[in-house]
Amino acid sequence: MKTDIILCGVGGQGILSIATIIGEAAMNENLYIKQAEVHGMSQRGGDVQSNLRISSDPIYSDLIARGSADVIISMEPMEALRYLPFLAKDGWIITSATPFKNIPNYPDMDVINADLDRLPNVIRIDIEQMAKDNGVPRSANVILLGAAQKALGIEYQKLEDAIRRVFGRKGEAIVEANIKALALGRAAQK
């Protein structure tokens, strides 16, 4: 088993939480894991990207080569396209459908959607609206993680268990909100 994942978005959207949950679930399955440095996290609204590699065999590099990412999980649709050169031909993009317009010359969404439509494996979800509609407004990132579960190759229960461990110290209400968000994303991927 080997899965190379690029996580991307903008600062403050929960990219690090997604990486932590995936990493916890992978370690619980006795898998090897490497994560590259996250860029841009010091500035809320700045671009954030992380390479996350999971394997049943030892991993020698934490960086993902161009054309070899199995999954791009993006909290922002333009950011998903930024890392497209790293995606394998049969790789998956799981992205928020809602832009985070943090730059004055943000591209037209029709152009972004057309680019995404040309790709074979894309899941686009309005995670922000889904999170609000379901009473978990701070868990949009975990909805996206739930939608990515099958592409990641990690058992759903392992992700749920990881959420319990990662968020347990924050209280049962936070844990339950994130488990609900994970289930919402899982249902949306179908």
Helix/strand/pairing category = alpha/beta
Main sheet: strands, sense, barrel: 6 strands, mixed
Rg from alpha-carbon coordinates: 15 Å
Strand tally is: 6
Stretches where pLDDT is under 50 for at least 5 consecutive residues are: none
Strand order of the largest sheet: 2-3-1-4-5-6
The H/E string reads EHEEEHEHEHHHH
Oligomer: single chain
Give the mean pLDDT: 93
Categorize the overall geometry.
globular
The percent range for helix content is 40-55%
Determine the N-to-C terminus distance: 23 Å
Share of β-strand residues: 15-25%
Count of helices?
7
Can you lay out the helices and strands and say which pair or pack?
Layout: E1 2-10, H1 15-28, E2 32-35, E3 47-55, E4 69-74, H2 77-82, E5 87-96, H3 109-117, E6 122-125, H4 127-133, H5 140-152, H6 156-167, H7 172-188
Parallel strand pairs: 1-4, 4-5, 5-6
Antiparallel strand pairs: 1-3, 2-3
Helix pairs in contact: 1-6, 4-5, 5-7, 6-7
Explained architecture:
This protein is of the alpha/beta class and 190 residues long. The protein is 41% helix and 22% strand. The chain contains seven helices and six strands. It has helices at residues 15-28, 77-82, 109-117, 127-133, 140-152, 156-167, 172-188; strands at residues 2-10, 32-35, 47-55, 69-74, 87-96, 122-125. Strands 2-3-1-4-5-6 form a six-stranded mixed β-sheet. Strand 5 (87-96), helix 3 (109-117) and strand 6 form a beta-alpha-beta unit. Helix 5 (140-152) packs across helix 7 and helix 6 packs antiparallel against helix 7. The longest helix is centred in the last third of the chain and has 17 residues, at 172-188. The chain is globular and about 40 Å long. It starts with a strand and ends with a helix. The model has no long low-confidence stretch (mean pLDDT 93).
